[in-house]
Amino acid sequence: MNNHHRQTAPFVFFSILFLLHPSHAQPHPHTVCIIGSGIGGASVAHFLRLYSDDPQSIGQITIFERNGVVGGRMATVTIAGETFEAGGSILHPKNYHASNYTDYLNLQVKKPNHADDSLSLGIWDGHKFIYRTLNSNSKLPIIQRFVSIANSIKLLVRYGVFSLLRMDSFVEVMLNKFLRYYEGFEARPVFESVEGMLKWAGLYNLTTRTLGDELVEAGLSSLLIQELVTVITRINYGQSVNMSGLAGAVSLAGSGGGLWSVEGGNWQMAAGLINRSDVDLHLQEEIESISYMGDFYELNSTKGKSYSCQVTVVATPLDELDILFNPRISIPPRKLQHTHATFVRGLLNPGYFGLKVLSDIPELVGTIESDDLPFSSISILKQHEKDMTYKIFSREPMTDALLDDIFSSRVETIKINWGAYPHYEAPERYAPFILDNNHLYYVNAFENAASSMETSAVSAENIARLILSRLPDKVDKNSPNLKSGDSSDMHSEL
């Protein structure tokens, strides 16, 4: 060997050792697979990108959706050229993640067709209307204002001023506690369990008792609970006041003022977040097995394909899926509450309600808890020139024979069966956020506390932070994206 080779060989040898030494090895980006393209899965992808400056932290994000469209339980139907929400339909003014999504994605906010105090309401017990607000066909503002004042007085007389005020206070206290989930990271920890997340905000006790028990303790009258509160819970969750207290409080919040939706459909929030998050989207591909292989997860789909993911996020309810987990996971049993949404273009039959003319039927027909009732609610979505579009919620499918009794004419009918939310029973039990003590995460564990578009986003944001905090090569905690001084700062960053 000549002198040149003798001099360069040690240099090459030590250069190779230097490059291979762990302290100088570059970490590989973590691949993340998300099952479900609803607001939960889309939000996880969004927050992972938002909170990780370092490209070496999160690499490819793949979303699997078994249906042909994104959005999960957010969907629309079209009747007579009009688009209506078929799934998650209303958002609260204090749903800050959803509000920020609309700004971030340049979506348009849509207000309800009716002013909050102008929608005529009737409470139906299966035989008669036990309560009805006044209604007027007049378009004159002074007449509408007079009717609104008269209805307010009627409401106060029936249910009591103090009882109604206590109901508002009950909801407001819950909302103020829920707002803690928007606080800055210096004040808000990353949560590894639903119980810990609820206890930190002071909401856990609401999930240990029924809504009925909570409202009795809050001083509401039995008439208000049996009628108006029950109407609201049956519309929003298809359940009675025997549901757990937190879900019931969220339901009551969904009947307040300032409610909104996204023009053209709420599903656009999920679609927009996915489009902005550099995601590899697989539509009409269902995952049938997830196996932990030591350093990664192997996901096998119904298309016969296999995928390797270092982090896997389940962002869809596991209750009615048949995913094979290896090793097996253990979560508390629960059942989903199915809500049947039936859309009808036609005209209601006033005789079914014991009335003589169509105009006497309230625009919103709510119901109390009774075995005689085949539906939870009927509401007018749109008034056409000669007929109307209605939306019916029911716990069981609406048969054609039943619809023919309720309607004098039907031009078009669309039926949708939603596995919409958990059937709530206090005290609630929770699946873990981390399903296997490694990197298998479950967004929908939080649904046993309350189910809505916003609670899914809140849970997803925590899951994204949880993932980043548990990666072997963690994101720098001093990253500006992982710090925010207060809730308004975080909102503007979105």
TrEMBL record:
Pfam families, sorted: NAD_binding_8 (PF13450), Prenylcys_lyase (PF07156)
Cofactor requirement: FAD
GO biological process: prenylated protein catabolic process; prenylcysteine catabolic process
Domain Prenylcysteine lyase: 147-476
Record keyword Transmembrane present: no
GO MF annotation terms: prenylcysteine oxidase activity
Recorded family membership: Belongs to the prenylcysteine oxidase family.
Protein name in the entry: Prenylcysteine lyase domain-containing protein
